[in-house]
Design a protein that fits this description.
This protein is of the alpha/beta class and 424 residues long. Helix content is 34%, strand content 26%. The protein contains 15 helices and 20 strands.
Length: 424
Amino acid sequence: MNYMSVSLPYGKETIEVEIPEKNVLGVYSPKEVPAVEDLNQEITRALESPIGCSPLKELAKDAKSVVLVADDNTRLTPTHLIIPQLLNELNKAGVKDEQVKIVIALGTHRFMTDEEILEKFGQEVVDRVEIINHDYKNPDALVDLGTTENGTHIKVNKIVYEADFKIGIGSIVPHHIPGFAGGAKIVQPGVSGEKTTAETHLLSVKNPRSCLGILDNPVRRELDSIARKVGLNTIFNTVLNRYGEVVKCFFGDVVEAFQEGVKTSREVYEIELPQEADIVLSSSHPCDLEFWQAHKTLYPSDLAVKKDGIIIVVTPCPEGVAKTHADMVEITSFSPQEVWDMLEKGEIEDEVAAALAIAWGNVKERERVFIVSGGISDEEAKKLNFTPFDTVQEAIDEALKIKGEDAKVTVLTHAPDMLPVIRG
């Protein structure tokens, strides 16, 4: 029998697995889209070509305080190169560096350390402006803005809200909750309170299938509404290729610039598959830190696999399941309906965790999930209702044994950032 050797990224390493050639439908990655030749030049081009608004130096000319809301180290956005140019443009508008703060859009992630902040933002930015970790659990750090038309309670970072001018900085990739990350997502959940994030996340799981790749959906509309109410003036978003290099930059209106960026994001991440597979083997790269990030592997895999098929998640997760959501391991042992019932009875305090437990559970009700992870113990994996394996080879061999000698296998090398589309 002839075998195909498949390489999967695993953190900073690579894992090899042998799969019978006759079983392989294909090995898929984000498209090979070249990076811009000169990133600084591309940043300048985007700033000089605003989408749906005036140039930054005109928009910010009367601002006494400016906040840059920037994504954290779970994202690859090159903030260390973008922010110096934004600061220079603000200087041209008469805004001094000491009038500018950066608030890290952590959502419900843990605080970044000083070392991580330096690595993410660079020495120049650290030297020029104050950088603050968003604290989603601190009521004194939040301001209450009432509710959206849909009834979502809006609590957001006070420093962000009170600034005269606000810029969101992030990247646009497919995402299971709002369709695509980027745009207004830098505010919700980026710099929002726990209740706001819980309500939008629970809204996202009212439908048992994710909104991955769907641009017009209830959650995206809520995010845009919240960002408008907070007063997010503009965004600077990038689209990256599979290597984390910038393909194109977008600056402008929160909605219009984002929607333009989505077009380019699709060109990179949308992958055509000939048919659904019996088995999908997926790496969590680049969302490797903890399963709170790596779970994004599940939703593209769910689109690529047959009902009652097997998903094999390959992820290092050096920080375990979820650093800031300790209840996840226990909550996910229940079915989606059981979690909904517990929420109705007020038996779950961490509603953000509950929303993701439902999302994971929806996938597990359709397919079996195998997991290979050095950071998640067998005991934790079993509580998550995943089947643990020590090696990828053992997992694929067992999956083929279960699904039969004619089972078809699809491999997704960068699953969290991929948007599989079945064209067959």
